[in-house]
Amino acid sequence: MAAPRILIVGGGFAGMECAHKLEKKLGPHEAELRLISPTDHQLYLPLLPHVASGVLTPQAVAVPLRRMLRRTAIVPGGAIGIDPEAKAVIVKKINGEEVVERYDHLVLTPGSVTRQFDIPGVDKYAVGVKTLAEAAWIRDHVISQLDLAAASSHREEREQRLTFVVVGGGYAGVETAAYLQRLTCAAVKRYPGLDVSQIKWHLVDIAPKLMPELGERLGEKAMAIMQRRGVNVSLGVSVAKVTEDTVTLTDDRVLPCRTLIWTAGVAPSPLIATLGAETNKGRLVVRPDLTVPGLDGVFALGDAAAVPDVVKGGDAICPPTAQHAMRQGWAAADNVAAALRGLPLSDYRHKDMGLVVDLGGIQAVSKPLGVQLTGLPAQVVARGYHLGALRTLTARFRTAANWGLNAVAGDDYVRTGFQAQRPATLKDFEMTDAYLSREEIGERVASAGL
After folding, report:
1. CA distances (Å), 244 to each of 160, 258, 429, 447, in order?
2. If you count DSSP H runs as helices and E runs as strands, how many of each does the chain have, helices first?
3. CB count, 10 Å around CB of 370?
């Protein structure tokens, strides 16, 4: 008799941690482990602003799945549809081929995509900070704007190319703006004819406060650091319209701009919508033990699941952070193994350890375990946390070495050209239009004879 098949969708924090722990908990003959992922690495998302600014190389934040997983078969592709009745997942492999993967137990960790709104031009001109490709493209693009501005004799064009807008006042947007602003202000010194005063960075958010999850004091400290560096922070304001060379804000300001970086929150993977199950603001509703009501053998966790926060109680839902995703991965592995062995399942519980926000240099604001830190102590905590969270010694060494080299030698501001010819939209980078309808899923499953 064949061993039960455990199919894990997604190789991010939650998916990789779940597979890694299942390899330890289950014997080789207890279950067949398969993981579906379009990439062969776990991406350490919190450090993408460091990659976009060139402080870290892409390889430093890409932890190879095969270094962590020894007996889990990796299916190189993305899940584009699920039929829970047939217990089947439709996968589009990286070569375009579609296959149907059956399962006995399904662990859904498809993650999230950049949240978009129905704002004219955002889908065409904005880029997010969710993938390595986006981070690499942003770095090349920002440096190319300096190159083109330096080569132009037109004042209007220079103004457009030296104005940069980041939308989103959460930690991702703040870190991205902080690191890229440092990059441009350092790089411009090597461009004859350009001056630091010509560079304009704008951080825009509809919320009334910057990073409210940090508390008022740390949020105001972060705001003061950003403003002292020359970043224009606009709160209570959003984007009304975007064109190739302008960003119009809801307060009627029109900014000449050719760079719009969109970090205004995340939305669950569109894969969740293919299930036809109950959702909470797009996230799949799950029980505290991470099982999905009404779907046999299905567990869901990470950014795409509305996991009840039993520590806070009430209707609280765990926020979509890396620390929750990793620990939910461990909890899911325990519960999947328990389900296989006919044992009771346990609820997921974890008290949030706080946030760290790295603003570059010796500047940071951190709130570990409720303790408010700023400046160098906060930076030590922030980088120490990231090094600890990286899953291999190799990744930790690469990251620490990159930080050290950058601190001593600085950056050379080189355009790699790796993403030069690809379309640069949220849809193209994050493939949000790859998913099937319920009817298409049924057709694929029927043709596979399941």
Report:
1. 10, 6, 18, 44
2. 13, 25
3. 9
Phi, psi angle pair for 431, to nearest 5°: 50, 50
pTM equals: 0.94
CA angle 295, 298, 302 (to 5 degrees): 125
- In DSSP terms, 283 is beta-bridged to 280
The beta strand positions in 110-211, using DSSP E, are 112-114, 126-127, 163-167, 200-205
**Can you spell out the DSSP letters for 61-94?**
GEEEHHHH-SSPEEEEEEEEEEETTTTEEEEEET
Host H or E run for residue 176? helix 171-187
Instruction: Give the Å distances, CA to CA, from 359 to 177, 183, 314.
Output: 9, 12, 34
The tokens describing 22, both together, are 């299942």
The Cα-based distances of 32 to 3, 328, 386, 405 in angstroms read: 6, 21, 32, 43
Enclosing H/E stretch for 110 = none
C-alpha 348: how far from chain center: 22
Report yes or no: 133 and 423 within 8 Å, Cβ to Cβ: no
Structural element, H or E, at residue 285: strand 283-285
In DSSP terms, which residues pair with 294 in a beta bridge? none
pLDDT string in tens for the chain (450-residue length): 689 999 999 999 999 999 999 999 999 899 999 999 999 999 999 999 999 999 999 999 999 999 999 999 999 999 999 999 999 999 999 999 999 999 999 999 999 999 988 999 999 999 999 999 999 999 999 999 999 999 999 999 999 999 999 999 998 999 999 999 999 999 999 999 999 999 999 999 999 999 888 888 999 999 999 999 999 999 999 999 999 999 999 999 999 999 999 999 899 999 999 998 999 999 999 999 999 999 999 999 999 999 999 999 999 999 999 999 999 999 999 999 999 999 999 999 998 888 899 999 899 999 998 899 999 999 999 999 999 999 999 999 999 999 999 999 888 888 888 777 767 788 888 888 889 999 999 999 999 887
| Assigned token pair, 337 | 């193994």
* Nearest partner of 128 among 428, 376, 347, 401, judged by Cα: 428
Are the C-beta atoms of residues 138 and 173 closer than 8 Å to each other?
Answer: no
CA distance 330 to 339: 14
